[in-house]
From TrEMBL:
Alphabetical list of SUPFAM superfamilies matching this protein: NAD(P)-binding Rossmann-fold domains
Organism: Pseudarcicella hirudinis
Keyword annotations from UniProtKB, A to Z: Oxidoreductase
Segments forming a coiled coil: none
Family designation: Belongs to the short-chain dehydrogenases/reductases (SDR) family.
Family matches, as CDD domains: SDR_c (cd05233)
GO molecular function, one term: oxidoreductase activity
InterPro entries: NAD(P)-bd_dom_sf, Sc_DH/Rdtase_CS, SDR_fam
Entry keyword Cytoplasm: no
Name of the molecule in the record: Short-chain dehydrogenase
Top-level taxon in the UniProt lineage: Bacteria
Pfam families the record matches: adh_short
Amino acid sequence: MNKTIVVTGGTKGIGRAIVERFVKEGFDVLTCARNAEDLEELRMLSSDNARIHTFQADLSKKDQVSAFAAFVKEQSSDVDILVNNTGFFSPGQIHNEPEGTLEATIETNVYSAYNLTRALVSDMISRRSGHIFNICSVASITAYTNGGSYCISKFALLGMSKVLREELKPFEIRVTSVLPGATLTNSWAGVDIPAERFIKPEDVAEMIWATYVLSKGSVVEEILIRPQLGDL
């Protein structure tokens, strides 16, 4: 029986790179996104040895997180890896960003991870096995102008990861925070910056795979990846 990985926001950028990397290793994938056409296109990457199961959901809404969690449990009783990747960036400063930006950003970037983890972690605890990756950001440790609510949300997500790490140690569940710098995804579409100034999404996925395959007696608590020439 194949192992199972759950990846939120799996149709683009880092999420898609993770899906592709783990399908290559024979994992069955359970993923979600808001766009049905993107999910259908992703599902075509299934192979005879590894299946991609998709679910349309907006994880900023708690009821849709619950629906996705129910879908996951219908498809697989044993989740080996959970990757909380769903997130978005809206530029602005705390004093001038549009009203409601903080609420929308926290709902997507933090509450989705919190609620989905709560929904799935009990089974990991009962099996005393599992690995949770939370896709944080360099913005989790470095405040920057025009980061506003995004920085707040990513600081919060890193804090959640640290708490989970401590809580789940006794149950042999590993928790890893992933902190990428500027990564070549749709968030940077249209900017006049050379591609070589960015991290490749595939490099983030490769680090997640390398972290997962360590022996059970070890855990990488944080993965910090920056562009070779420094942050943008």
